[in-house]
Amino acid sequence: LPMALVFLAGWPFSVAMLVFIAAYVIGGGAAGLARRVLARRVGVALALAAGLAAPAWWSLVSHGAATLRATDPNRLGVLWLVPWNAWPGMVIPSWPTLWRTYTNWTLAPSPWLFNGLVPLAGVVAGLRAQGRSFVAAHRAEFFALAALFALVSLPTVRPLQVSSRWLPLLHLVIALVGAEGVAAAAQRATDAGPIRSLRDLATRLWSPRNVGMAALLVVAPVCFVMLTPGMSPVRIVSGVSGVVALALLWALAGLVVDARSLPARVAPVAVVALSLVSTALTVPLRVSMPRWSIEASVADPRPMERSRRYFMLYNRADVFSNECCDLVGHGRFAGVRGELLPGNFGLYAGLTTLNGYSPLRLRTLQRAFDLGIHGYTIRPRLMPVLERHVGAGRLLDLAGVDGLVLPERLAARFTQAEAQGWRVAGTRPGVTVYHRDLVRAPVVSLAEARTVRSFDEAARALEAAPDAPPVFFDTRASGSAERFAEARLDRAREERNATTVDVAVPADHDALLVFARAWYPGFTADLDGRALDVGTADLILPAVRVPAGSSGRLVLAYRPASVRYGPFVSVLSLVALVALAAGVRRKK
User: Fold this and answer.
1) Are residues 512 and 484 in contact, defined by beta-carbon separation less than 8 angstroms?
2) Structure confidence by residue, pLDDT tens digits, 406-463
3) What is the largest CA-CA distance in the chain?
């Protein structure tokens, strides 16, 4: 069940870490038959866990295939990798390193590499106490450490990019090995007599049982490297003083405290706690990350209305700088203030928007509007986007959009607004809000469309001729412009996961029905028990070709495979789990 919860969480790194830990457990187990039994048990546990969580991960996989995050040709991720020269940050959290962040290269400390000093000191103490036998006894852990050091520093493919996210598991394994090292050092402890000479003092200080001395051995080389020319003395002292003081006090305590006593066993916990608290208080923990400053005014969208459907047109300059309009505060990477409309504003204010913040970035929306992660269009010029999608029978009409939000610099050029039924509803800082009266139909019948057979062909057609009829993408399409019959539509009703409509198609031509809802993988169409293919109109709307002469009740439903078959797999896995548990209980 804990494994199933990891799968349910849906984070690819969690699942990858679970598989890594499973391999680690098998690799560290006994050899021969015992290892094969352990591998079989772990494999069965993983399979049952995946089966119990089938609806969750199945949905993630099927939707991921339709997102830019999963299909981006730039597969190797090079952002937030741990640079080779950043590893001293495991000892000194203020260690400065040039990191490649989400937005640029930044000289920053490395607090996320710091693990409280004790784990590394424990590893050194174990090596000093037992030497090669310590490595041999924990070879699986050391192999795991080597693999994790490589994973956090090397670029990996999607969806496991940003390799530094392996760091929590790396810290966990180091902590396990460090705890074994502290225990190994304690086993070397002997009853120590009084210190009578400098030689006794040096021997006691250098003794392998003194874990604090191992901490000093870890800290000293890094401090020496920090004395390179160009480093500010004030920065050096402020960055290393706390860690050096803790290591020194720990080493001195080892002179007078027996390694098997309660104070000696408590000392590592105290050192970890003090070092982490000191790091949190003195070292900035967030560097070059998006920040959001949410104000109460975001809950009031006026002059926008919650009953409308909006398209917010803005580009990267509007979000990442103050060059164009006052949408964001100067110097912010990405976020919201009370007056900021793009991005997450629609969620905060309870609005329905066509675009907004999307880390996965649905591939269809991205190709239709060239959208970035925060809902902005990547194009520097915005007017062509309006010209391509605003107009009778074009994309915004088909999608039922009756609200526009434009930066002031673009609103001044939107001269055709009144002719197309748009009117100024009001303004917010930096933007103008347009409304229009639109009878939003859940489904419409198109008279003409450009039919294409591939996603890329649909994107090129939409880009090349904006004045042409809508683009219908279906793998069985004819690949040319096509006229369709006007179907009679009655009793159309839109629900959360389905649209139903009574349809009657003339006998001379097929009909093409377009639904005013966002397309996602998993839509099915059923006409009185007969399955029909679901394509897309202008890439982002579900569209269904209905054969000539057909009539009946058409149901467009969102029923992905994860919903149809996922629960069945979960039930089978649960039955198998109960059966296995019952069998184990009978054997006992």
Assistant:
1) yes
2) 887 787 777 766 667 888 998 887 788 999 988 888 999 998 888 888 888 888 888 7
3) 110
pLDDT for 237 equals 53
pLDDT, position 328:
36
**What is the C-alpha to C-alpha distance for residues 7 and 17, in angstroms, rounded to an integer?**
11
pLDDT of residue 324: 41
How many helices (H) does the chain have, and how many strands (E)? 22, 19
Tell me which DSSP letter residue 412 carries. T
Tokens 């940003």: give the residue. Answer: 162
Q: Is 365 exposed, middle or buried (0-12, 13-18, 19+ CB in 10 A)?
A: buried
C-alpha count within 13 angstroms, C-beta hemisphere, residue 114: 30
> What's the gap between Cα 222 and its chain centre?
34
Contacts of 359 (CB under 8 A, 6+ apart): 69, 373
DSSP-based helix, strand, coil % in the chain, nearest 5 = 45, 15, 40
Computed over every residue of the chain, the mean pLDDT equals 81
CA dist., res. 552 & res. 503, Å (int):
6
Q: Which residues pair with 558 in a beta bridge?
A: 523
Residue pair 565/494 in contact (Cβ under 8 Å)? The answer is no
Which string of DSSP letters, residue by residue, matches 189-248?
--------SHHHHHHHHH-TT-HHHHHHHHHHHHHHHTTSTT--HHHHHHHHHHHHHHHH
Q: Report pLDDT for 75.
A: 59
pLDDT < 50: residue spans in the chain: 234, 323-339
Alpha helices in 469-541 (DSSP H): none
129, 161 contact by CB (below 8 A): no
pTM of the entire structure?
A: 0.77
* Alpha carbon distance 360, 358 (integer Å): 5
Q: 244 CB contacts (<8 Å, ≥6 apart)? A: 219, 223
Q: In angstroms, how far is CA 545 from the centroid of its own chain?
A: 36
Helices 262-282 & 118-130 angle (0-180, nearest 10):
140
370 φ/ψ angles, rounded to the nearest 5 degrees: 55, 50
Could you give phi then psi for residue 467, rounded to 5 degrees? Answer: -80, -10
Say which amino acid occupies 510: D
